[in-house]
Amino acid sequence: MIISSWNVNSVRIRTGNIETYFNKINPDILLLQEIKCEDDKFPYEFFKKKKYHCYVYGQKSYNGVAIISKNKLLNIEKSFNDPNKQSRLISADIKIDEKLVKLICIYLPNGNPVNTDKYSYKLKWLKNFFNFIKKENNNYDGIIIGGDFNIIPNANDVDDPESWENDALYKLEIRKEFRKILSLGFKDSLRLFNNNDKQYTFWDYTQGSWKRNKGLRIDHFLISNKILKKIKNVEIDKFTRGLEKPSDHAPIKITF
Fold this sequence. Notes:
Helices cover 20% and strands 26% of the residues. It is α+β, with helices and mostly antiparallel strands. The strands form two sheets. Strands 3-4-2-1-12-11 form a six-stranded mixed beta sheet. The chain has a six-stranded mixed beta sheet with strand order 5-6-7-8-10-9, with no helix packed on it. A hairpin with a 7-residue loop joins strand 3 and strand 4 (65-69).
């Protein structure tokens, strides 16, 4: 089974890229972030023709998350306590080898500029999310958290880390909140299979960032220790960033 996560930066604009991804990777489940549309504007017919079910939590013009799945999913929830009532989390129950697993798709606030309400919102969101996961941990055989975290975990996850020390994606205070989530019994799954530097998931559209590989690793899959043995591999599908009119993010995928 393949589960992928991708900040598509507007789902209606990227259907061609998503089709290319489906044809090459054929994921069983795709988590989408920053779909940038309300529920009724989501391209359901496109996914229906590809034989996928859609579970959508949209928002006009901004944010929005969705879970796309070959099989019908149960217990779809959008009830996370978001401080600003934005569409940033959707979850579902799945089975992995008869184990009940909670699958969570998130689009965490960016938080910039620092010293504004945007940064305070990010901190509140992270603290609420920590409490949410701590509670859900007791109800499942495992939890998978996938999405755009807008967090650079370590120095080898960004080009020129010193220049990012006061950015909301890399501030020590934010990275500590990320580690608190890991302390609940999770692993940053990519690093179980790939410890190399420059393993990025995001490249800005400006300054030739993609061609120069000046990127960030801000899209992650956190996997609870209970189901780590089920994972075969975790990879970043960088080829999508080189497609025509790409998202500035590349998908990350887990193979079970």
